[in-house]
Design brief:
- By secondary structure, this protein is of the alpha/beta class.
- 45% of the residues lie in helices and 14% in strands.
- The chain has 16 helices and 13 strands.
- It has a 7-stranded parallel β-sheet with strand order 3-2-1-4-5-6-7, sandwiched between helices.
- Helix 14 links the parallel strand 12 and strand 13.
- Helix 1 crosses helix 16.
- The protein starts with 11 loop residues before the first strand and ends with a helix.
- Bound molecules: uridine-diphosphate-N-acetylglucosamine.
- Uridine-diphosphate-N-acetylglucosamine binds next to helix 1, helix 5 and helix 11.
């Protein structure tokens, strides 16, 4: 299927910066290439994430083409990182005569590039718009609110997002409900997922340790891992759970750095913990798909577990993805150790929430975006 006629003009600049962007962008680029082949695409990586484990492995796993441009900004405070991305992105927009800039998700790279584009009068397209946790202490919430305000075209993953956007004064005709591109990646990659036993063996760990089931843990939100007390309390609760069920814990660099800094690394010495470095996409998918439950503060994993039908205990007080709680397998358990433990016990005793897969989380969201965007671009050209 090829949608619309060939389009003249500069490229759509597609921006990625951090790990959770890659699984959203991969299906979008595939859909553009397949359905709007005349549309030039320029893939820009800001370099917000740069470690091979946070970056290169995922590109390969997702068949994401190598970026055409890498801004190589690296880590810094929010202000410095955002400013540096903006400084380095502006000349790219000018050099390539961008027709539009497409950003995904809610990381610093998302707002930084959207802000540069809108100030150069280049239309901004935001994929995964309208999600709101209501928690303005979360850096991502600020990125979400601001990116949506300056976007010309907003693609949403769940219907509740439109109400959030309308409340913030965003015209409904700029918003299109297309479903969840992250689930496009999940569906495309599931047949290639690496089974947990294989992953453990590859890391020199005896797979017999998880023969009777296991849980998966990830943790990286600043609110959970940037303060010694909160981090110690959460790790304490996880250690209790690890006495009942082995927990495979893929350690994010922020969390590892903080555990070291706070002198808390020894808390991971519990025999029920299986500690791994950050994992590739296919490894993480295999881990989640074979698990009894997932304990996480990640946004994407709340959605992935809902798509997989695996119970998810979200170690946060709020979620910007309410559909995963209302329809999916997600439970918000908060950060109180007793509550985390009680929720895990409940899953162990009764199997946890079953849930159903939300509307349009069907592997075709990126195709819908390609079709919609192609029409939108043609209409703009005619006006
Ligand atoms: C960022 C996103 C967050 C997303 C997460 C996924 C923002 C505001 N936050 O958080 O929404 O869920 O990515 O990982 O954009 N570091 C490395 N190697 C890397 C990257 C980072 O060691 O490749 C370390 C650095 O010490 C850095 C720290 O991790 O300071 C945090 O990285 P940063 O990109 O600032 O935020 P994340 O916590 O990864």
């Amino acid at each position: 299927m090829t949608i619309g006629e060939p389009l003249a003009g500069g490229p759509i600049i597609c921006v990625v910066g951090a790990r959770p962007n890659y699984m959203k962008m991969a299906p979008i680029i595939r859909a553009f290439r397949a359905h709007v082949p005349a549309l030039p695409i320029l893939l820009v990586h800001t370099g917000q994430h740069y470690d091979p484990a946070m970056n290169d492995t995922l590109f390969a796993d997702l068949d994401l083409p190598q970026p055409d441009v890498n801004l190589e900004v690296g880590s810094a405070s929010h202000a410095v990182q955002t400013a540096e991305i903006m400084k380095r992105f502006e000349p790219v927009i000018d050099q390539y005569g961008a027709r539009a800039v497409l950003v995904v998700g809610d990381v610093n790279s998302t707002i930084a590039c959207a802000l540069v584009a809108v100030k150069r009068n280049v239309p901004v397209i935001h994929v995964e718009a309208g999600l709101r946790s209501g928690d303005r202490k979360m850096p991502e919430e600020i990125n979400r609110v601001l990116t949506d305000q300056i976007s010309d075209l907003l693609y949403t993953t769940e219907r509740s997002a439109l109400a959030n956007l309308t409340r913030e004064g965003i015209a409904e005709d700029r918003v299109a409900f297309v479903g969840n591109v992250m689930i496009d990646s999940l569906r495309a990659s599931l047949p290639k997922a690496v089974p947990a036993a294989e992953l453990l063996a590859a890391n020199g760990i005896d797979p017999a340790r998880i023969a009777d089931g296991y849980g998966v843990v990830t943790l990286h939100r600043p609110s959970n891992v940037d303060h010694p007390e909160s981090l110690a309390r959460i790790i304490g609760a996880l250690a209790e759970i690890a006495s009942r069920l082995p927990l495979v814990f893929a350690l994010h660099p922020r969390t590892r750095n903080n555990l070291e800094r706070f002198g808390l690394l020894a808390k991971l010495d519990h025999p029920g913990f299986i500690i791994l470095p950050p994992q590739g996409y296919l490894q993480m998918l295999g881990l989640m798909a074979g698990s009894v439950m997932v304990l996480t503060d990640s946004g994407g994993m709340q959605e992935e577990t809902t798509a997989l039908g695996i119970p998810c205990l979200t170690i946060r007080e709020n979620t910007e993805r309410p559909i995963t709680v209302e329809q999916g397998t997600n439970t918000l358990v908060g950060v109180d150790p007793q509550a985390i433990l009680a929720a895990a016990d409940e899953v162990l005793a009764r199997g946890g929430k079953r849930g159903r897969v939300p509307e349009y989380w069907d592997g075709k969201a990126a195709e819908r975006i390609a079709a919609h965007l192609s029409n939108w671009l043609s209409q703009r050209r005619m006006n």
